[in-house]
Write a structure and sequence with these properties.
Distance between the termini: 73 Å
Largest sheet: 9 strands, mixed
Length: 568
């Protein structure tokens, strides 16, 4: 058994890393609904468990794709990068950075205790305004407990790991008396509970692949097996456990500014600047019309226009200017010879401002489609995923409850992007965008790579233009008023009868007149921001003359393009 001074790669061989990745994703998948239920901070949007599960699952998928023979440090880097690229939500992004910190430390030969400390510091450094009592505190306390255990004479690596699990668990248990929103709800912090499961999965993974007893080794050798043994029996004997009741805690009236510091003092942590007021921008208080925006930035290996570490700082500052809950994770230190990658996250009421940030950074690298969702959207058994190029329309779709993908030129929205967003929801999904057949095929391929694929089918309907997406807004709004509504049926019915045309402001009236020759009950006009009001008024008058209702929407982008749709 390795002692506390052993390097991470001696504590976690390749078999342990592979087992850990699977176990962590599985544990978060098993408990995601329960963790979702206690998600009240920073926003009570009920998806922390799902987001952490999707993040861990994408990391595990990336590890599973690596051929045998890769070393533990390389696998940890793959795990971190897969989690980063697949991260969802605030806690998922933070988890991916924690994994990245661990991978960086393992690559340079740190001990387990120091690697956990690097992971905690890396995660905290990624958050613009860290709050106390969250996943960050759990990571801090786990690291402090690990360092304490490692300093004891004769300590083993397992002692260090078990201390880290206990530390994270104690931090999660104390979160209810630390954050006012948790205290009022009588629940533990969702992200902290998720990290407990991830750490406990590592504790379980080590015994699963520890060299077997002599009799088992003889049997394995006779069968031509390797040194390590991992069986389903071991999994049932040593399950990953949270070991905490997440709900049912007595409500506590905390003083303004946070809770106690007892847990931190016990571990030598300084929480002086972490007691964020619940109404501080970027924390629990959110604008009723606030959106979550996430995107991935990739930059070529060897890019030198920013000093080391400056990309994240600059991107974090840009996003802080348009919103709160800013988290930027990633970098070039996992594999300097590969393209670097960052995942960015912000809560904002200014979608146009956030998308302007994505376009600005597209000039410094490759920005993948932005994911937009409304933080106050009601929960639904069906996730709707829509692609649109119009920023203002994206906001309307998100308000109607959809997850919206907005391309950042020159990168478009691919079928795989839509399928990943659908699978990442944890529910059955309706996908609206171009090339529905390609989306369905991508969803089948991706579902085959996941042991815990999304329940229910992924329904894909062709919505090739922005005006198709605009028509979906009304269909979703109508269906949202009826919990028993057939959302997919309502959307399909609205799109089946749609006649659409894309034109310019100068030719818009003539184009609409041609569409109305076939009759129509509803006219949708999607106009770029530079289309004159007089043109919009003329289109409205023409629709009224034909006895049709006219719905006018601006795209939120410069230009004089006009997209027209006629229903009925």
């Amino acid at each position: 058994m390795p002692d506390a001074d052993a390097r991470v790669t001696a504590v976690m061989d390749a078999a342990v890393v592979r087992a850990w990745a699977r176990l962590a994703a599985g544990a978060l998948g098993r408990d995601r609904a329960a963790i979702d239920q206690v998600n009240v901070f920073p926003v009570a949007d009920g998806d922390t468990g799902t987001n952490m599960h999707v993040t861990a699952r994408e990391g595990a998928r990336a590890v599973a794709a690596v051929p045998d023979g890769a070393g533990p440090a390389a696998l940890l880097r793959v795990l971190a990068r897969g989690a980063l690229l697949g991260a969802r939500g605030n806690s998922g992004v933070i988890l991916s950075e924690w994994l990245r910190g661990l991978a960086v430390a393992a690559t340079r030969g740190d001990t387990l205790a120091h690697a956990l400390d690097v992971a905690a510091r890396s995660a905290r450094g990624a958050v613009a305004h860290p709050a106390h009592g969250t996943i960050l505190t759990a990571a801090d306390v786990a690291a402090a407990a690990a360092l304490d255990a490692a300093a004891r004479p004769g300590a083993s690596a397992d002692d260090v790991l078990e201390a880290a699990v206990r530390g994270a668990r104690s931090a999660a248990a104390s979160s209810v008396s630390t954050l006012a929103p948790l205290a009022r709800a009588g629940v533990l912090d969702a992200g902290a509970c998720g990290l407990v499961l991830v750490l406990d999965a590592l504790r379980v993974a080590r015994p699963r692949v520890t060299p077997p007893t002599p009799s088992a080794a003889v049997a394995a050798g006779a069968a031509g097996a390797g040194v390590s043994v991992a069986t389903a029996t071991m999994l049932t004997v040593t399950p990953v456990t949270l070991g905490l009741d997440m709900t049912g805690h007595d409500a506590i009236a905390l003083p303004d500014g946070g809770g106690h510091r007892g847990l931190d003092a016990a571990h030598g942590l300084d929480a002086e600047h972490e007691h964020a007021d619940e109404h501080e921008p970027g924390h629990e208080h959110s604008d009723a019309d606030e959106l979550e925006v996430m995107f991935v930035l990739r930059r070529p290996a060897g890019a030198r226009d920013f000093p080391d570490g400056a990309v994240a700082d600059a991107l974090r500052a840009d996003l802080a200017a348009v919103g709160g809950s800013v988290v930027v994770v990633g970098g070039a230190d996992l594999a300097p010879d590969e393209d670097s990658a960052w995942q960015a996250h912000v809560h904002t009421a200014d979608l146009a401002g956030a998308l302007a940030v994505t376009r600005r950074w597209a000039g410094r690298g490759r920005v993948e489609p932005a994911h937009v969702r409304h933080l106050a959207a009601p929960d639904s058994e069906l996730t709707v995923v829509v692609a649109t190029t119009a920023p203002a329309l994206a906001a309307e779709l998100a308000r109607a409850g959809a997850v919206v993908l907005v391309p950042v030129p020159p990168v478009g929205v691919a079928a795989r992007d839509l399928a990943l967003a659908a699978l990442g929801s944890g529910r059955a999904a309706l996908v609206l965008g171009p090339a529905a057949d390609a989306v369905r095929a991508a969803a089948r391929r991706l579902a085959g790579e996941h042991e815990d694929a999304v329940p229910g089918e992924v329904i894909a309907i062709d919505a090739p233009t922005d005006v198709h997406a605009a028509v979906v807004v009304a269909a979703l709004a109508a269906a949202g008023d009826d919990p028993a509504a057939d959302v997919a049926g309502a959307v399909r019915a609205a799109l089946n009868g749609l006649r659409a045309s894309a034109t310019d402001a100068a030719d818009a009236v003539g184009a609409l007149r041609g569409l109305l020759d076939g009759g129509g009950d509803v006219v949708t006009v999607l106009a770029d921001d530079d289309v004159p009001d007089a043109v919009a008024a003329g289109l409205d008058a023409l629709a009224e003359q034909a006895g049709a209702e006219c719905v006018l929407l601006r795209t939120g982008r410069a230009g004089t393009g006009v997209a027209l749709g006629v229903e009925g």
